[in-house]
Amino acid sequence: MDKLNEILQKRFGHATFRAGQQEIIEQIIEKKDVIAILPTGMGKSLLYQLPAYLMEGTVVIVSPLLSLMQDQVEQLKILGEKRVIAINSFLSFQEKEMAIRRLADYKFIFTSPEMLQNEQFNLALRKLSIAYVVADEAHCISQWGFDFRPDYLRISTWLQSIGSVNVLALTATATAEVVDDIKKTLQMNAPFEYIHSLDRPAIAYEMIEVDNQQQKMKWILGRVTSTEGPGIIYTQSRKKTETYAAALREQGISVGFYHAKMEQSDRILIQQQFQQGQLEWICATNAFGMGIHKDNIRQIIHDHIPTSIAGYMQEVGRAARDGKQAIASLLYTPTDVEQTFYVTMQDFPEEQDIQIAYQSSYSDIEQAETTTRILTYWKERLNEHETIELFKDIKQKKWQDIQKFYTMIRNDICIRQQLLHYFDQRLIEKPYYCCSKCKMEAANILQKRTEEKNSQEELNWKKRLNILLPT
């Protein structure tokens, strides 16, 4: 397809396709449903952007995060595409009204699963000729849909409402079970599946057992102040993101913190500062990272046992996008398994919550927002007993996922080999720097800190505006 290469070079500035890109794009142009599983940094955005220029109609991209949408919109604008918009809560009422009235003017429309339930927006979408629908970060359907964001599951009904349209599902990680969830929810018909090896040879894995939280803090301070970043420190606690950042800032590190309870404008500011190199380190919950375009991340540090191997692979996969050596380090104590399960279950509906939801109207009771949202969805579809059994199964699976991770880091088997095995893939060749189970010396990977880095000064309001609203 000469036309493909012409567009690739002229519009996107690339001389050749990466592995799998051309095959996937050809299937999209042939109007086939497609599931593409490629590691972070393999050019997933090109897969939905390029075919749009060879097909009539609008492309609707369903994305999980506001910051990710905004970043993708900006990336397209940098490439010279003006017919792009994100329909989300960033827009004021008046901006949203105008955007919906002018929806036919856009080639790329980014939105969220929740926004797809907006009646006015839906009516406008039905009047369009839709080339195809993209589910970006499609693993969120399975990871979040059943017990956190039920509007991901409602995508199935939405697809039926807009008529026959092909779907492209993109993600960096997915087990066979997750792929099945994606196929069912997105109403896919015999999709073409492209699954790239999830191995990232440039990322070495380091697992370190410590005795307590104080040792974790001491280790993190020692590592960050003595070695070069950029890097991300992942923790489960919003408070800890701020505690780590404050301690590192006192040591002269340019660092910021990031979590879901921050103002959206502050989160965007921190994300942009990190991407532009104004911050060397970010201390964050798992709310940070999706869609980050930063090629030179050298370190990922976890101070806890993640809730799943899939989630861990998503987070460490943000390192080494430039192909140069990086290291993913994980600190844990024997009690971290229980702590991770406790954190995971905080907003999880218990049997009593479910019974109350079925016996009362929501105006009569007080429940966590997440609990109310998810039980409203299942109450419309299952009876009380079925819902109780569903959440027992989900709870058991979450516990098993955490236990699988703990088993992986405690045994003597190569970490890289076990990570790939979880996704039914085989390790073909071990890199020179593999993992701490393979006698790897982290000191041989890390670059010593060569200069004193001053802590990031507080930005005044003019500087903040310049970053948020570039001219």
Give a quick summary of the entry.
The protein is an alpha/beta fold. It has helices spanning 2-10, 21-29, 44-49, 66-78, 93-101, 119-126, 140-144, 155-161, 176-185, 213-226, 238-250, 264-275, 309-316, 336-344, 351-359, 369-379, 384-410, 415-422, 461-468, and strands spanning 34-37, 58-62, 84-87, 108-111, 130-135, 167-171, 192-195, 203-209, 231-234, 255-258, 281-284, 299-302, 326-332. It has 19 helices and 13 strands.
What does this structure look like?
With 471 residues, the chain is α/β, with parallel strands linked by helices. It has two domains: 2-195, Rossmann fold; 203-338 and 404-468, 3-Layer(aba) Sandwich (Rossmann fold), CATH 3.40.50. It is 41% helix and 13% strand. It is built from 19 helices and 13 strands. The strands form two sheets. It has a seven-stranded parallel sheet, with helices on both faces. A six-stranded parallel sheet has the order 8-13-12-9-11-10, sandwiched between helices. Helix 15 packs antiparallel against helix 17 (384-410). The two termini are 39 Å apart. The model is unreliable at 453-462 (pLDDT under 50).
Task: State the CATH topology of the largest domain.
Answer: Rossmann fold
**What is the percentage of strand-forming residues?**
5-15%
> Any idea what the CATH architecture of the largest domain is?
3-Layer(aba) Sandwich
| Shape verdict | globular
Per DSSP, the total helix count is: 19
CATH superfamily membership of the largest domain? P-loop containing nucleotide triphosphate hydrolases
Give the beta-strand count.
13
- Share of helix, binned: 40-55%
CATH class of the largest domain: Alpha Beta
Strand order, sheet with most strands: 3-4-2-5-6-1-7
